[in-house]
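Checklist before submission:
- one chain only
- standard amino acids only
- sequence pasted in full

Submission:
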Amino acid sequence: ALAGVAIAFAGLILVSGAAGLSLSFDRGQYLTLAGALGAAFEIVLIGRSSLNADPRRIAIVQLATVGVISLAVEAGRGGAMFSMAPFPLAAMLGMGLATAFVLVAQNWAQRTVPANRATLIYALEPVWVALVGAAFGEVFAQAQVLGGALIVVSVVLSQWKA
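Returned file contents:
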C-alpha cells in the first residue's frame, strides 16, 4: 500500500502538470492541502465507523453537518443564496441528492475496503475526469498521460496479493 501511495502521488504531480515542482505555497495550496487532509480524515473515520453503523445514518450525519455549516457561512456572508431564483435552488437540490447517494455508497463500500486502499481508489478521480475531458476534445501532454497511467498502476499495485 505504501508503494501504491508513493506511485499515486508521483502520478498526481504529473497529471496536475506541475512545472518545476516548486514547494512555495500560496493561499490556494494551503487550502488544497487543508481540503486533502480533511478528506483523508473523513476516509479514516468512515473506515472505522462504517463497520458498526448503518451507512445511510452516517451519510445523514455527514450531510446535516455540511448543511448546517454551509448555511451558517452563507448567512455570515449576507445570505445571497437565500434569494436565488428557482432554477439554481433546484440544481442545488439535485446535487444534494446525488451527494447523498454517493455518501451512502462510499460508507457502504468502506465496510470492506481499508482506508489506505480507499484513498488510492479515490486517487483515480483525476483519471476519470481526464477521460471525460479527452472525450470532449481535451488534449493532454505526455507527462499527464504518464501520470494517469501511474495512478492506475498504483491502484493495481495496492490490490496485489503477496
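Reviewer check: The longest helix spans residues 86-109.
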